[in-house]
What we know:
- The chain is mainly β and 402 residues long.
- It has one helix at 40-43; strands at residues 3-6, 9-12, 17-20, 55-60, 68-75, 81-90, 95-100, 106-111, 116-122, 128-135, 139-144, 150-155, 160-166, 172-174, 178-179, 185-190, 196-201, 211-217, 223-231, 236-241, 247-252, 257-263, 269-271, 277-278, 283-288, 294-299, 312-319, 325-327, 332-334, 337-342, 348-353, 358-364, 370-377, 383-390.
- The longest helix is centred in the first third of the chain and has 4 residues, at 40-43.
- It is globular.
- The chain starts with a strand and ends in a 12-residue tail after the last strand.
Amino acid sequence: MRRLVRGRVAIDAAVGLLTVAAVAVPLSAAGPAGAAAGPSRAAARWSAASPGGRTVYVTNSANVGGIANVTRFSIGGTGALTPVDAVTLGDRGGARSMVFTPDLRFAFLANTLVNRVVRFRIGSGGALERLGEVETPGPFAMAIAPDGKTIYVSNSGTRLLSPFTVGTRGELTPLRPVDTGAEAAKGVAVTPGGRFVYVSHGSTRDTTPTVMTGFALRADGSVGREVARKEIGISGAETVITPDGRFVYVVNQISNDVHGFRIGSGGALTPVPRSPVGGGDFPEGAGISPDGRGLYVAAVGVEGNDPDARAGQVLGFTIGDDGSLTEKPRRVTMASPIGVGFSVDGRHMYVSDYTESIVNAFAVAPDGTLDLVQTAASNGPRPAFHSINVLPSRRTASRAPR
């Protein structure tokens, strides 16, 4: 089979597979892939990060040892990442999902293994100042209401979704937890209009399909009645909603597929045409491009439940007008891709790698294909679920009732 080699990217012309050299780049050499490292003293300096839209936070879980942290990166003009600083979370791992208030004043992080949601103030240039934490069992995924008044936390290993109101100083006040209607609450997503929240379920020990449930949200942010319950695959993971609020997708780790649904005016779910579609081997992460036209899935590539199998891929799909998914012709090979995030303008995508502890930066072509820009160290051990978190552009949160 003929292979076209372009720097550190090899394209298999016979099968259309884009293979990325998943090599960790030291902090002192972080830069565009294939570029020569500059003088170590200059390259090792932390740079000044820009605020909303130009900052990426990578949560390093330390799930199998080491020190968990949140590392801040700035996004350069080419889409490459430059490390800025890191906030240490301690030697008990589990750092995962982050969410931000729309006014960019506060950030919250799920620290699963210590049963805490950590609160931060976002300072100049995106710097994080730790404010404190609140207890909640096994926080895994999080979503924030569009007005920034409420966050929703799935409690892994339970049937619970825990909402918290967000105070004017970033304090979190628990509302009544809600039974999600199935075991092992996992992925969480809120519609852009703030009317509904959807929760996927499942454990990697499961052998049968589970469900995604949806709930109406009340004006005070609390969770109301169930509006949807649909069967998905085995062990549902990341759940994402298109920017226009029309479709929701969930990746399923054990059944290796992606289910898509149309969201009705009352929150009910209807499967999109041709759902489900194949999602690679052990898909866990997902992201939708800001224009709503592309869905990207991170398939970790776990074989025989071996986290170091190193057989992962990133799959791209075109989202049709009816919500159907058509896979793009090229897959990106990485050891264990997991976290997915986009720059605000959608021109670049970032994917973390769990076993290699790296982040790959890609340019997104007009047709949605991915071209490697950079491979950089994540600056910590084992970035896990939802470990890529791009600080959004600033917008004023409405304090009016939904």
